[in-house]
């Protein structure tokens, strides 16, 4: 990805926030996590009246390194398109926060963390978490950082679910919300693909009922297959066809089961490199959280009711025409509910053939829409 | 419809709208009118626009605009969410103009509606003399390319407003690129001489109330 060289890395702060045992995270399942840890990064400085804070919510397998190099892979920040000098989110003007979701494996408490009660990794004894739980942990962090109201909460995909949940649960603590390529609940197809991924992990003999860490192994093959299946859902058919077609990896067929086709080789690489940076149990827990996600269900089955307290929040919802993971119909459904609730919403479907991942890629129409939305929200917030 | 005619149209709308009001522009294009209203009248401007590029242009201007269309998306707005709902040169392009007009006056106290008058003498003459679908300044496209699927005359429109029990609060006529002219919509000659007309309407007896569109339990089913 040579284009990324164009982006300047951004000076960052952050680390791990440890909450005292008397400040546990209460979970939707009824359980709680004591001694919660939240891994996070920040960029820029909080202004005097604490009105310029932006929370970025990462997607399923994302992390807090939104604008600084990943500590394991060394890859540049994953959203430098949006964040940097002269970009819509500028550390010169904004205080940008991104935290690893709970259940994750980049510094926040998750199934790979040590359970203080046993001294061993949680594994499958880790409680099942939800998207609202993730948001509750973020709200604790934001409060701990001394911020009452966020200027914006921004997220794509699972990050967009968290952004919606912020508006539902903490409407008085968010000024604006950006939801990209997301949905207000998981569809049967979404759940189905996640189940394929989970079964691949659990079918790996090295998964060991989730206790692989203490046995010194890793269900790498299963996790790689899970990633391969999921990766297909992030791309569109035209994008795959354009990138690979039926191109072969070398001259002629192998008449066997090597990676003959470029697309096979690409997926194998995606799977193998994912294993280096992601934990298999985290994948189980986080996919579960998104499968359980259904905002309307907690509000009498009526999505609009979830947003009745969020009338003063400014919403920006963007979908992508070739995204079949969270198709435009899901965003439109959210926007109609926001409209019915009387909230202030902007919504557009961006023409793109890049599939679900388009929200992370070069989409000038999305950039212009986001920039306009954030600029006008900044004026309304008195930041410019 | 020419740019000049649209500008005159907008000028008249700008005159009619109360400062600081809540305005929904249905079919707002790239947000030119909303931008004008926001700057000149400090209105709380919202829009509905069918084209993605139009919406993106509006968002780049910082306007709260939703991609959607008059036929399908008005139903999702709560009762009386706006002081004015504007439908500029779009009524004749909707699938169900009667429903759209009814919805405009459910979600807003006043509807500002403009449309080309199919009763104008040039339209009548064109049809009478050539026997072809009229192509005029107000209706420039051939029949096979026009988005206008529900054209009406001034008299037709007045009949519909009576049928829906609507009150005409203001009306103006436009011709070519000239300024707005006041008119009596039931006047004997107006249906002949008016090329484009603009109405501000309200409902006799106020706005009927309606439940949120959630009868089926979940909006997913809607």
Chain-wise SSE layout:
The complex is a heterodimer of chains A (384) and B (222).
Chain A: E1 12-18, E2 25-26, E3 32-33, E4 37-43, E5 53-57, E6 95-99, E7 114-115, E8 120-121, H1 131-144, E9 150-156, H2 158-169, E10 174-180, H3 188-203, H4 220-234, H5 237-243, H6 262-277, H7 280-292, H8 303-306, E11 314-320, H9 328-340, E12 344-350, H10 364-381
Chain B: H1 3-16, E1 22-26, H2 32-41, E2 44-49, H3 52-60, E3 64-67, H4 70-73, E4 82-88, H5 97-107, E5 108-116, H6 121-130, H7 154-163, E6 166-174, E7 181-182, H8 190-193, E8 196-203
Structural class by secondary-structure content of chain B: alpha/beta
| General form of chain B | globular
What is Rg of chain A? Answer: 20 Å
Trace the largest sheet of chain B across and list its strands.
3-2-1-4-5-8-6-7
Strand order, largest beta sheet of chain A: 1-4-6-5-9-10-11-12
Largest sheet of chain A: 8 strands, mixed
DSSP summary, beta strand count of chain B: 8
Which sequence of SSEs, written as H and E, runs from N to C of chain B?
HEHEHEHEHEHHEEHE
CA-CA gap between termini of chain A: 34 Å
Structural class of chain A: alpha/beta
Can you walk through the features of this model?
The complex is a heterodimer of chains A (384) and B (222). Chain A has 384 residues and is α/β, with parallel strands linked by helices. Helix content of chain A is 33%, strand content 16%. Chain A has 10 helices and 12 strands. Chain A has helices spanning 131-144, 158-169, 188-203, 220-234, 237-243, 262-277, 280-292, 303-306, 328-340, 364-381, and strands at residues 12-18, 25-26, 32-33, 37-43, 53-57, 95-99, 114-115, 120-121, 150-156, 174-180, 314-320, 344-350. Chain A has an 8-stranded mixed sheet, sandwiched between helices. A two-stranded antiparallel sheet of chain A has the order 2-3. In chain A, helix 2 (158-169) links the parallel strand 9 and strand 10 (174-180). Mean pLDDT of chain A is 94; it is low at 1-5. Chain B starts with a helix and ends in a 19-residue tail after the last strand. Chain B has helices at 3-16, 32-41, 52-60, 70-73, 97-107, 121-130, 154-163, 190-193, and strands at residues 22-26, 44-49, 64-67, 82-88, 108-116, 166-174, 181-182, 196-203. By secondary structure, chain B is α/β, with parallel strands linked by helices. Chain B has an 8-stranded mixed sheet, sandwiched between helices. Chains A and B meet through helix 8, helix 9, strand 12 and helix 10 of A and helix 3 and strand 3 of B.
């Amino acid at each position: 990805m040579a284009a990324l060289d164009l982006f300047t890395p951004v000076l960052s702060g952050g680390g791990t926030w440890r909450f005292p045992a008397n400040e546990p995270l209460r979970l939707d399942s009824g359980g709680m996590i004591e001694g919660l840890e939240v891994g996070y990064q920040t960029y820029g400085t909080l202004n005097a009246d604490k009105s310029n804070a932006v929370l970025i919510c990462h997607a399923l397998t994302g992390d807090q390194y939104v604008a600084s190099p990943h500590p394991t892979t060394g890859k540049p920040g994953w959203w430098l398109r949006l964040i940097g000098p002269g970009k819509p989110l500028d550390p010169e003007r904004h205080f940008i926060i991104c935290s690893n979701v709970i259940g994750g494996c980049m510094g926040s408490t998750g199934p790979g963390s040590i359970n203080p009660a046993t001294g061993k990794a949680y594994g499958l004894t880790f409680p099942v978490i939800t998207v609202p739980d993730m948001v509750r942990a973020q709200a604790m962090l934001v409060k701990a950082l001394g911020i009452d109201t966020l200027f914006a909460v921004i997220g794509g995909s699972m990050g967009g679910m968290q952004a919606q949940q912020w508006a539902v649960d903490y409407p008085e603590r968010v000024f604006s919300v950006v939801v990209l390529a997301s949905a207000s609940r998981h569809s049967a197809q979404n759940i189905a693909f996640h189940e394929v991924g989970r079964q691949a992990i659990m079918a790996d003999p090295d998964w060991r009922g989730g206790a692989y860490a203490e046995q010194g192994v890793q269900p790498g093959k299963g996790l790689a297959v899970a990633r391969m299946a999921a990766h297909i859902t992030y791309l569109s058919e035209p994008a795959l066809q354009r990138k690979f077609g039926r191109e072969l990896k070398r001259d002629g067929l192998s008449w066997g089961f090597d990676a003959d086709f470029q697309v096979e080789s690409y997926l194998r690489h995606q799977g193998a490199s994912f294993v280096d940076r992601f934990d298999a149990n985290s994948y189980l827990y986080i996919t579960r959280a998104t499968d359980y996600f259904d905002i309307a269900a907690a509000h009498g089955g009526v999505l609009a009711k979830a947003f009745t307290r969020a009338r003063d929040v400014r919403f920006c919802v963007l979908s992508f025409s070739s995204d079949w993971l969270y198709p435009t119909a899901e965003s439109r459904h959210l926007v109609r509910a926001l409209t019915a609730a009387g909230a202030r919403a902007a919504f557009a479907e961006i023409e793109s053939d890049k599939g679900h991942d388009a929200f992370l890629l070069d989409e000038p129409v999305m950039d212009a829409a986001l920039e306009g939305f954030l600029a006008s929200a900044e004026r309304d917030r008195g930041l410019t | 419809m020419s740019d000049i005619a649209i500008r005159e149209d907008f000028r008249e709308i700008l005159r009619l709208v109360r400062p600081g009001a809540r305005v929904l522009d249905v079919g707002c294009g790239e947000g030119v009118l909303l931008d004008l209203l926001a700057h000149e009248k400090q209105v709380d401007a919202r829009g509905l626009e069918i084209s993605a590029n139009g919406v993106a242009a509006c968002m780049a201007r910082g306007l709260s605009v939703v991609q959607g269309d008059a036929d399908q998306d008005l139903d999702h707005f709560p009762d009386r969410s706006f002081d004015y709902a504007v439908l500029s040169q779009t009524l004749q392009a909707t699938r169900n103009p009667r429903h759209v007009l009814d919805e405009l006056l459910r979600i807003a106290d006043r509807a500002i509606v403009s449309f080309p008058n199919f009763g104008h003498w040039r339209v009548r003459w064109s049809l009478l003399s050539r026997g072809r679908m009229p192509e005029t300044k107000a209706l420039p496209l051939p029949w096979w390319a026009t988005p206008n699927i529900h054209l009406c005359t001034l008299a037709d429109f007045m009949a519909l407003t009576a049928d829906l029990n609507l009150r005409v609060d203001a009306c103006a006529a436009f011709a070519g690129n000239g300024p707005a002219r006041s008119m009596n919509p039931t006047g004997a000659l107006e249906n002949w001489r008016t090329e484009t007309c603009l109405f501000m309407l309200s409902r006799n007896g106020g706005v009927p109330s309606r439940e949120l569109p959630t009868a089926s339990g979940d909006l997913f089913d809607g």
